[in-house]
Amino acid sequence: MADKLFGTDGVRGIAGQYPLTADFCLKLATVLAQKICTSKKQVAIARDTRISGIMLQNALSAGFTAQGIDVLDLGIIPTPLCTTLTPQLNVDMSIMITASHNPYRDNGLKLITSSGDKFSDSQTNELEALLQTPDFSWNYSDSKIGTVKTVNAGLENYLQTVKNIAPAKALSGLKIVLDSANGAFSGILAPVFKYLGAEIISLSDQPDGYNINENCGSQHTENLSKTVVEKHYDLGIAVDGDGDRIIICDENGKRMDGDQIIAYLATYMQKHKILKGNAAVATIYSNLGLGKYIRSLGLNFYATPVGERHVIAQMQKSSCNLGGEESGHMVLSDYSLTGDALIAAVIVCLGIKEDKRALSQIFPVFQPFPSFSNNLRFTDKSIIEKIMNDSEVLNTIENMRQTLTGHGMVLVRKSGTEPVIRLKVEDEDAALAEKCATEIISIINQKL
Questions:
Q1: Is 332 within 8 Å of 321 (Cβ atoms)?
Q2: For 216-233, what is the mean pLDDT?
């Protein structure tokens, strides 16, 4: 059976190891040039701050230009900016080189259509088949070699979007600690909040190619929380390495996850009559309390499969403009085509400024159901495949689902980006949820 190259968010792996190698990128660019870049014969490439991004971008550029495709080098910018700019660039597609919230040694390739959407399963399945065909025709161009052109696509584009949301000095009086994760928002996040008049402390905004997400950003908020408390600031805002996730902490350093931010945005947007479709979208991984709260507002609540592209697809289907994930992806489609930490942060802060209460009096917006989560990590994905196809494991998972039917949930899934099985069990009865989670973990451990 052929290797699965594309996960929930493109190709992901360790840089320098297959498939995140220069020769793979060369072949991928060749396939894309022949199958996708056939109209405008132009592609845009952006990256986050990882040291390996340069190597991967150069290999992609070589493959495209050898096929006669021109490359627009967008440089280091956040994923949401790359996605939102793509329809304006007159390109056949874009590629964002990033491993999001993962450590520097990882990297990935997010493929973006000319309309700013992520590639569909059917598109990636076709690409996968071609990439694993030994006799695929490379057909180097003998009539035209493509060019590489640098395009400045950073701070000014974000400032223009922010001006459409809030005027200068709109956040004056707020004291905010910002954590840029030493990633793509370094050099953007702080200037935007200064433009909005906030008093800021900027953390982790000096990327060196190796320190992206290192003890900082949305996955590691300890220093953010500590700084907020020690400096007596109003709140902290952390993003991840490519800028599509946001996590917030209150003045006491307490962390608020994506579910709480979705609930807050729904409340604020409904109050200001800017919520479209009378609905909000999240995934099945969101806490059951979120859906209960959204429905209490008189809104529809849609829970999709895990993955931002599923959230966006449901938003488009329901004509609504708010969606997100527990992990911190916030999609505000009036302003951005994908999860955008900065745009979400600005709107949250507008609400906080208007409210005048301390963040700890605003959050949590809803009471979560008791939840037991565990990320079971393995040495490689082949072990996960065996476990997830084992009859005893599957029977135990199904029995636990039956136990919680109608009042709780059991989620067991393979990570799309790491050799991890993600387990989440929720129920209003905390003891019952814990018992079900323990039984599933026990049977998986037996299989090891």
A1: yes
A2: 97
